[in-house]
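Something for you to look into today, if you have time. What I am after is a single protein written out in full by you. I want to see for myself how the chain folds. Could you add the entry underneath, on a fresh line?
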Amino acid sequence: MHFEAKSASCIAPGNTEYWVCWHCGSYFSDNGNTETDPDEIFLPKTGHKYLEWKSISDTQHERVCEYDTSHKVTADHTFDDGKITKTATLLRKGEKTYTCTTCHGTKTVEISLREEVKETTQKVARRIIEWIRNIFSRNDAGAPGAILRVTLSQPAFTYNGNVQMPAVESVRAGDMILDRDEYTVSYSDDNSRNAGKYTVTVTAGEGKQIVSGTAGYTIEEADITAVDAGTLSFAYDGRIHKPTVRSVKAGLLKLRSSDYNVVYLNRNSAKAGKYFAKIKGKGNFCGAVLVAYTIGKAVNTLAVHGKTAAVSHSRLMKKAQVIKASEIMKIRGAKGKLMFALAGVSAAAYKNYFKVDPLTGNLTIGRNIKKGTYTLRIRAKAAGTVNYKAAAKTVKCIIRIR
């Protein structure tokens, strides 16, 4: 089965192009020619890596993920109180420059001497009016109105075993930016260490005149990146063999046994062959790693011992004689189909008088052979099985013709 290559992204793992054999479960980097390790195929997701804030308009800035620019976080500028960069006089206008405290973007406005004085007076008045309006914004039930807009320094983290909480970058009540001493901040969990969703609540005002706003942030699961499964190669002995996971890591973090599950894709891994174990993260960890392990074929237990057989010369003068394999050799422990062949005769000139049946090992001796003692070398080969290797033994069998 063929799988197209897929690049890893911030939120999803990827893989190189690969093929999987339906029969044995092996992985290949091409169409059945080059077998490869699953660890070289599957690519962990990259996770977000946000770049610095950049101004995108007079009112907003944003920052994008380095790996995927379609993933972005947008927020309003948080301008400071401004600084006179060009002093106004009675004859000319001045300039006042405002700088965003987050992205350092600026905006410049012209201001006359009269406007400068007027602006300062109006700013104080607007702040007082806006504050009063926001404080008394309430719903029909008399509950505080959740009208504060909260911007956090970082909306998402990746689990690292430590407490992770974003800072509050700005709080707005309508068009007004609140100073830090005008509100209080509380977290849904002051120990936000584990993967999950959390909330930051900002509250302003006192008594019955309380307003609030919330913003959420997440701690995402960390991807498993490495697995040490110890011994991955076994020899067939009729028993089930499985590797024992020694350690699992997500980057520099070492997982506890309760942080992952081990699934053996073939639980009855007793026969010789290739098998896989899947280590899958849970809780604060995600992703999975396939570990391949093998059970190699055992050595064939074939044992062959030669015997001595006597044959009547008078019978051989009449017709060829057949001697059973069991009369000229003793065979035991063979694994797989047996095949036989005549490897040699002590008297080479008489080799054509001897024939060994390749399937049964029976020996046929031809007519008119001279009396004497002949030493035959017979090769017995066991083809092996799914669990045993092939093996061959050559033995000497003595034939006495008298």
